[in-house]
Amino acid sequence: MSALDRLADLVGIEPFYHDIWGNRRETSDATKRALIAAMGLPAGSDEEVEASLRAVDQRAWRRMLPPVIVLDEQAPLALTFALPAGLDDADLFWTLTEETGVSHRAALTVGNLPVADRAVIDGVAFERRTVSTRLPSRLPLGYHRLSVEIRPKGVGGSLEGSTTLIVAPERCLTVEEVVPSGRTWGIGLQLYALKSGDDWGIGDFDDLGRFAEAAGGLGAGLVGLNPLHALFPADPNHIGPYSPSSRSFLNILYIDVERVPELDATPDARTRIAAEDFRARLAAVRSAELVDYPAVSALKMPVLEALHATFRALPERHPRRLAFETFRREMGEPLRRHATFEALHEHFYRQDPNLWMWRSWPPAFHDPNSPEVQAFATERADRLDFFEYLQWEADRQLGEAADRGRKAGLAIGFYRDLAVAAHPGGAAAWADSGILVQGANVGAPPDQFNLKGQNWGLAPLSPVGLRETAYANFVAMLRANMRHAGALRIDHVMALQHLFWIPADGSDGAYVEYPMQDLLRIIALESRRNRCIVIGEDLGTVPEGFRPAMERAGILSYRVLYFERSADGGFKRPGEYPADAMVTVTTHDLATFKGFWTNRDLEWRQRLDLYPDNGARDKDSWDRGVDRWRMLQALSAEGLKPASYPTDEGSQPFSAELMEAVHRYLARSPGRIAMVQVEDALGEAEQPNLPGTVDQHPNWRRRLSVPVEAMPGHEGLRRLADAVRAERDRY
After folding, report:
1. What are the structural domains of the chain?
2. Which residue, among 585, 140, 205, has the nearest Cα to 395 in the 3D structure?
3. What is the pLDDT of residues 578-599, one digit of tens each?
């Protein structure tokens, strides 16, 4: 094996992968060099590769302990540490401090500990020794700290090392632990798509609270949401929820301005809202078919600034001020950094639109800890406070919406959605540049939907950086997204095992491995601590053995009716679905059921010239007709085909009865959670997002045709809810 291959293997770059057609694709040397460089290791020449290889090889020997050790709660505690050879007479002192502050201490002699391994690094002999005695036999679940000090006899000074010990359960919280029957159903929606009589052109957290009450009243157990991640307030044209600035904070455009308590005490803001011009602009965005994000931002942001000024004038002991300070303490330094980025991004982008990416800013502002950044934060303290205030108010309103849903009967509550990665130009990449890789993007290899593969333009987490920081960033992100939620959907969950990286230089991509077992254990720990069920979106190319590993960890699989097929291409029978799954007819990236039946998505692809040739277009159309025929056959086999469909011919028109029958079909499956997309319940033909497009299709902008106030009495929604609930209760 060459030095390049060894180095690539050590940093987790897979030497090959099999595409969706079963073809083996080798990772080229150029790709290996580019991805190794993206991880911060020089690899441009053979000499650089050799030097980087030595550095990686030696790193584990030159430090006493790894930065983190993740253990199953049932595993016995043992510790292996590295030190120079020849210290047999030295005393070893260890201190294990539990998360609660309880400490355990002991002293041992190094020579009494068994040698696990030996190495010579630059002429210096090293050895690894193992401690298994006198350590606590079991530790409680949580995040603990272990420190080791070695004092050689008759020699001044000592050697020190420390590590984070994470003790985690085997499985996540299960549906059965929350819902006695172990089966429930829910309604999924895109929050921005909600509309009401008093919205400001976009669905907001008050609308969400009303929708949650309606869903609870219909007997649903949960409401599924699109990612609520922070975007870019300075540039409201950047709207993709799966391309966020940060996955740990919220999109502040979802704040309902009229529910912010400071409004009552801000007469200037009330006067502004009551002005004729403002009311005309508000009426225009409220009646629009599509969300106009810049117009919404132009309405909301000046009013929110006025409300923040009122808030700043409140007495220090005012309950709102005290609650804000509590939130700031809970969120800690990450909140401060996020607010600093927001203020910097606003400052530079307004100065010059070409300074949108933070790496285009003056170099002194690339580092959150630089004197220049600290000076900016001091000078613009009010602006930082404003962005922190918006995060706090968004969190408060989301929490209120969740409470309303639970009180209305949602047994699980909200399920939130965690995007696979963040934008390289966003707050997360700026605040944690050692964790988010800058020289590569996340994507997917070629498949039947994207023959050239996909580049999502997102920054992957560094597997090395994750371990070096004891997974702190990952833990914080999980906690942030489990907040005010009873379930969490992890987008492209295969990223826990490996993720497809595409070098910035344009060379072919390759899969990069992640510490899957550690990540699964941490997810299980946070799942139980936050009482949050976990669902893994496992669509696409799923590695062998991955789904069984998810099942063992208690993470629900994500099964979509359109994709669940038998060997002959027909739709799977309901009983063939796994129990540990969330099942759904469609997703935000696929045609609604009405759109599927009427070929609306195929019409869009033809209109936008997304087909490589007429043959591909005609094949899609033919295949869709076959799928309609297969679906009617599947419904017939279950006794669910409506009487208005006398045959299985796929040319028969769409009907609400057919929609209901298909959802009954899926609701009969043993899957723990059955989801209904609100677009299907309302009979919408258009889908929220059309993959492969950016501006050609109105992605992430479509508003629902029915206001939230009318949903409790909407006949189609009620009928579909009654049908799904009946099947869930029956089977």
Report:
1. 3-61 (no CATH), 74-168 (2.60.40)
2. 205
3. 999 999 999 999 999 999 999 9
